[in-house]
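Morning run. Coffee first, then this:
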Amino acid sequence: MHDTDLLLATGNPGKRAEFQTLLGGLRLRLHTLDDSVPECDEPFATFIENALAKARHASGHAGRPALADDSGLCVRALDGAPGVRSARFAPPVAGEAALPRVEQDARNNALLLQRLQGVGDRRAHFVCVLVAVRGVDDPEPLVAHGWLHGHVALQAAGTAGFGYDPLFVLPQQGLTLAQLEPQHKNRISHRARAAGQMAQLLQAFWGVAPSAQHQSI
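And here it is:
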């Protein structure tokens, strides 16, 4: 039985490795975009629309099935912000070049704490939406969701992870995501939960086979 080719709508090899692990129970051969493919716009107000746009964009350029994700942090007291703008929550300074990710993350976190100063309700959740399409005009895209609920800390803690991880507290553990071991985080994350749901959809609707290891369990 052959592996199914699936293009990830990213050029990031780290994300490929992450999804290789998350979808490791399936016979998939994962590919990433090359540098010749222009970046896809994400102008929409919802995660699902942005993920679908990225999946169609990638599939259209590569001519093969594609998988895309859109993720972010939604804070109740901020009416769902940063939401789809989580990666670019802190606006750029006029005339300033694009910041390295670490610096943008720091500014995003500082702005989030500023917006929540004096706010008692700090409930928040991470969301991940995964969309898979067979082709650019696929009328039946597969859509999976994953959530992780917690609250925003009063100050950052922990050195692992990235983005809002140092501010996102898991109530049961009393720790931020940045204080968890990476293996633990990856088991419970919103992306892992969405990937688990997507794995079921790929098997049920596309006929993707489980890996030999999982067949023997």
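DSSP finds six helices and seven strands in the chain. Good start to the day.
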